[in-house]
Write a structure and sequence with these properties.
- With 103 residues, this protein is an all-alpha fold.
- It has one domain (3-88).
- The protein has 5 helices and no strands.
- The chain has helices at residues 3-24, 29-38, 42-51, 57-62, 65-91.
- Helix 1 runs antiparallel to helix 2 (29-38), helix 1 packs across helix 5 and helix 3 (42-51) packs antiparallel against helix 5 (65-91).
- The longest helix has 27 residues, at 65-91.
- The protein starts with a helix and ends in a 12-residue tail after the last helix.
């Protein structure tokens, strides 16, 4: 399986989990906690951006549906790439350097 296919699988699973937890986090506090834990660091940054404002400039921009959806998608894709790198690192540990014995 190519790395792109593996990344797409990770991105699909991450998107599904983020979408479900993202929808539930407004009604259930446990979903908010899980959203922040499972999607750390990019999901956490998304929620900070969503709830904070810098002189109301960011808040007005975040109220736009297209901008909010784009930022959510970007956060999920970056989070999926983060997970992908971790999975690849675990899957393929560094090859140890073989030292040749000298006579």
């Amino acid at each position: 399986m190519t790395p792109l296919k593996r990344y797409m699988i990770v991105a699909t699973v991450t998107m599904a989990v983020a979408w479900i937890l993202g929808a539930l986090r407004f009604d259930h506090e446990i979903a908010e906690i899980l959203f922040k834990m499972l999607l750390f660091p990019f999901g956490w940054l998304y929620t900070i951006l969503e709830t904070s404002s810098l002189n109301d400039g960011v808040r007005n921009w975040m109220d736009d549906e297209i901008s909010q959806g784009t930022l959510f998608l970007l956060a999920v894709l970056l989070q999926a790439y983060f997970y992908f790198l971790i999975i690849e690192k675990i899957k393929k540990p560094n090859k140890k350097i073989r030292h040749e014995k000298s006579p």
